[in-house]
Amino acid sequence: MTGKRAALGEREADAREVLERLRQAAVSQSADGMSRLYAVDAVHEFPFTAPGVPSRLEGREKIVNWIAAGWKANPLKYERYRTLAIYDTNDPETIIVEQEALGTSASTGEFALPNIVVLTVRNGQVARLRDYVNIPAAAAAIGRDL
Prior knowledge:
Largest sheet: 6 strands, mixed
Structural class: alpha+beta
Radius of gyration: 15 Å
Strand order of the largest sheet: 2-1-6-5-4-3
Helix content: 25-40%
């Protein structure tokens, strides 16, 4: 499946719209939703990561499969996101987002996971996502020590 282009007269989703769709797919744990959002050749990076967690995933299928496996194995259920700030960049297809994923952990109860995302969108789909996850907060939310 190739990236879907906007029909004649329609505009493609910009980075802020794609961000909201990503959040909705994460909250609903929709692999299909995620698959529609990532470009075939997308790259998802985790510049800060924990042992056993990849620092770079390449390609829609690999990215979506990794995300879906995490939903199954992880006790975290995202309920919503809180935007702290969104910054435009010199590239109109790229935004920087300070946010918190809010939800409930089967292990520890309510959580707030702060992170920063650098999102680049091409043709209405994620081309590159750099996800600066707060590793200590994520570990605490699932009830693990680093």
